[in-house]
Write a structure and sequence with these properties.
It is a single chain. This protein has 164 residues and is an alpha/beta fold. The chain has 2 domains: 1-38, no CATH class; 40-161, Rossmann fold, CATH 3.40.50.150. Helix content is 31%, strand content 28%. α2 (31-37) packs parallel to α3 and α3 crosses α4. This is Methyltransferase. InterPro entries: DNA_methylase_N4/N6, MeTrfase_CN4_CS, RM_Methyltransferase, SAM-dependent_MTases_sf.
Length: 164
């Protein structure tokens, strides 16, 4: 059974990090708040499918409802920068993100986000995988989705190889 945490995030994560369990710890809540509670370099892997820009109307507001797509990209990248802080140097990140149209033109949002991440935050893009989704609750949820695989740059030195 998975452990799902919704409150006392910092204490629960610190406790979990000192256990010898292989059971995953799932954190549920607003990423912009949860990530601030996590210690630096404490996460091995993160995967997310954030709300897509202008695709859903959420009753509680939140990311994806920005008027301008550039604000959406900046807001999402602000959260991703916190993720970079908590990800271990050997950690990995999967971002499942869809594109949007505005005034009948495809905006290239997945690539704009990735370029922001690689150019300004230091991420390394390792792969872009196309998820060809053929079933979904809504017709517009089907189609091709971008799944971006990123990591932090690996620190390499000649001295680290001398022990092999």
């Amino acid at each position: 059974m998975n452990i799902i945490i919704t409150s006392n995030i910092r204490e629960e994560v610190l406790s979990y990090l000192h256990r010898s369990t292989t059971q995953p710890l799932l954190l549920h809540g607003d990423a912009s708040f949860i990530l601030k509670e996590l210690p630096d370099q404490s996460i091995d892997m993160a995967m997310t499918s954030p709300p897509y820009w202008q695709k859903r109307q959420y009753s509680h507001g939140g990311i994806g409802l920005e008027i301008d797509y550039t604000d959406y990209i900046q807001n999402l990248c602000h959260i991703i920068q916190e993720l970079y802080r908590v990800l271990k140097p050997t950690g990995s990140f999967w971002l499942n993100i869809d594109d949007s149209y505005h005034h009948k033109r495809l905006l290239g949002i997945p690539w704009r986000i990735v370029f922001e991440m690689t150019d300004k935050q230091g991420w390394i893009l390792r792969n872009s995988v196309i998820w060809h989704k053929i079933k979904g609750l809504f017709r517009e949820s089907c189609g091709n989705k971008n799944c971006m695989f990123l990591r932090k740059p690996l620190k390499f030195s000649v001295e680290s190889c001398q022990n092999f």
